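WARN no homologs supplied; continuing
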Amino acid sequence: MADGWLLGIEIGGTKLQLGLGRGDGRLAALQRRTIDAGAGAPAILEQIREAHRALLGAEGVPPRDIRGAGVGFGGPVDAGRGRPTTSFQVGGWADFPLADWVREELDVPAVAVQNDADTAGLAEALLGAGVGCSPLLYLTIGSGIGGAVILDGAIYRGAGRGAVEIGHLQVPDVMSPGSPIAELEAIASGWGIAARARTVAVDRLAASGESWVVLTNAGGDPRRITADLVAAAAREGDALADAVLDRARHALAYALRQAVALLAPRRIILGGGVSLIGEDHWFAPIRRLVDAEVFAPFRGSFDIVPAALGEEVVVHGALALALEAASESSPRARREGSTAD
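OK structure emitted
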């Protein structure tokens, strides 16, 4: 455990979270903010400054006591340089020197920046549903889809600019004529499920003049249809809603079968808001679909389970990154590194 405090930061497309911890797996304090994506990166940086002041002030922690910071960023990152490559949701982040900014603006000596899905996967591996499992494949399925592979408690970083971008895997769309190929994220994310449901609702209304329970529950406005409304209707026994979910389940199962063939994970963890659909309409059908056509020699060598750490998962992972960064920059670590050289 590092001496002093550690700072964990989650920067998403809709949510900003800052947490304090000491490297013992516990979250001592948390500040949460809603992001205005249209305001761009400068507005988020100002929110980070404000939340940082509030977090330290509420706990009575002097800034000089923060020994390291970790950032889980909602998009691809160049981890070696501490810079986001881009953001698909918020403008102004492309090649932004985020690690340097945190060092200078928040006065933190050691900073690590990783993709948010990688950061969440690390947290689940160290503290959550993946403890003791390696290799571990983690997916976060929300407004988008991100993935991570954790090997022996460490993030697999590929060539350094990200890896396991499973949301961009090309998969067949089983509900379209001829099963055309589309990105997994376009089909199985919360946005993808809602978009399909909007199309179904509008087409049904145009063809028969009949509304659909999902459209009714959205106040008759297709633009207000969400994946949550689709899931709620499916739980109530609506066959059309379950068919919309089945499109997403088939696409995700296809992607997971490819991942199993390539990675042979010991455990697959599904997190994110869409996975809150639950056992009957998400996990159980996906397990059956994966098992039915998975690479036969690997059948039974892995399981598929829900994530365990909830909304703070990225903050927990960011604190683990902070601990690693602080440990590597400690005087002792620097001396040992010099000796090894």
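The first strand starts at residue 5 and ends at 11.
OK
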